[in-house]
Design brief:
Blueprint: H1 2-9, H2 20-59, H3 63-66, H4 68-107, H5 116-146, H6 157-188
Helix pairs in contact: 2-4, 4-5, 5-6
Length: about 210
């Protein structure tokens, strides 16, 4: 309970230092809660999608083969809702963990601004995917509908645009992964022994 109280009351406390054990326990709790909430929220979305798709498949098993755009149109509302939930989840994760991450960085004598690229990617990446993912699938589906069963035409402008979208999404994912690795390294490093510019050592408080 002390762990929960400390972090819930310290959501806006960006001062001081925090050692590794309480920090990682809090991150684990937040991740578990985030996973459970996202899983529960996605169940109705997936159920609704299957309820719409199955009657179409039963009526015409080859409908989506002959009309890939229909599948994209059917999936689009679900994908948009999932991306919206991902953005909301990222914002909540930021609110619950930002102060703790800053204090953990302070413990190793690093500025809390080192966390800015990580949180920026957490929020920007889903928005970026929301812009490029539907465009990619729409272009690929239009090509499949134009020439069913034929290999992709590499000179087709639609194919080139789809590949550019995929390349941009891949670059964003690689950048996000690199920033995540950097943050994990910073957060697992031991804190400085004794006081530093951000306060006293949480493992060795000063004697009074």
């Amino acid at each position: 309970m002390n762990l929960l109280t400390r972090h819930l009351t310290g959501i806006a406390d960006f001062q001081g230092r925090e050692n590794r054990q309480p920090f990682w326990l809090w991150i684990l709790i937040v991740y578990i809660v985030q996973f459970v909430v996202m899983a529960i929220a996605m169940i109705p979305l997936m159920t609704s999608w299957f309820d719409q798709m199955m009657p179409m498949m039963q009526g015409d098993p080859h409908r989506f083969d002959n009309d890939p755009q229909a599948m994209i149109q059917l999936m689009m509302p679900m994908m948009q809702n999932m991306i919206t939930m991902t953005v909301v989840s990222a914002v909540l994760f930021f609110v619950l963990t930002a102060a703790a991450v800053v204090r953990r960085l302070h413990d190793s004598d690093r500025s809390g601004w080192w966390s800015a690229p990580y949180y920026a990617m957490q929020i920007v990446s889903p928005i970026f995917m929301a812009s490029y993912f539907p465009r990619y699938f729409s272009m690929m589906a239009s090509m499949s509908a134009a020439k069913p069963g034929s290999p992709p035409d590499f000179n087709n402008p639609a194919f080139q645009q789809a590949m550019q979208s995929m390349t941009l999404m891949s670059l964003v994912n690689i950048l996000g992964f690199a920033i995540l690795v950097m943050m994990i390294v910073f957060l697992v490093l031991p804190g400085t022994v004794g006081p530093n510019r951000f306060g006293d050592d949480p493992l060795k408080p000063p004697f009074h």
